[in-house]
Amino acid sequence: MNAYRAKPNNVPWPPIISISSILLSILLGLLYTPGLPDSALLRLFGAALAVTAVFLSAWAVLTLISARTTVLSHRGSDHLVTTGPYAISRNPIYLAQPLLLAGLGLATTNSWFLIFAVITGLSTYALGIRREEEHLLARFGAEYEFYCRRVRRWL
Fold first, then answer.
1. Displacement of CA 33 from its chain's centroid (Å)
2. Global pTM?
3. Domain of 67?
4. Which one in 30, 49, 99, 122 has a CA-CA gap of 20 to 30 Å to 93?
5. How wide is the angle at C-alpha 44 spanned by C-alphas 94 and 23, nearest 5°?
6. What averages of pLDDT result for each successive group of 10 residues across the chain (155 residues)?
7. What does 6-21 look like in DSSP terms, one character per residue?
8. Domain containing 150 — which CATH number?
9. Is residue 69 part of a domain?
């Protein structure tokens, strides 16, 4: 556990995963897109979901900046942030990433975004969240454990 005390990761995996997922969804969508129904209601719901994801991510980033701790996923946290969106989800930025992909998929009828939304969530958990949780536990101990009991990982 001490290996994670200084910082959770050497590589900022979560943003790399998300950006790669968006680019691959666009590229694969240009080559071939398995069909999604082209419904105005689905497109509208997808756009709303994407906007909600951007809002959630921005709110989370601003909360971290206000708390004077890092926003970068491969840097060590200076403070345990439990307010704003962090009072609802321990990982609001990581929750926003697959929601954005799903929203883009529905808004554009590109099913690759939906496929990569799932891949992004699973990959972010495996390469980012687990290591960050170890880091936060090593840095903040019982305070972080208490926070984990009060607030769910995703929602």
1. 24
2. 0.92
3. 45-155
4. 30
5. 45
6. 65 93 97 88 98 98 94 86 98 98 97 97 95 92 97 93
7. S-S-SS-HHHHHHHHH
8. 1.20.120.1630
9. yes
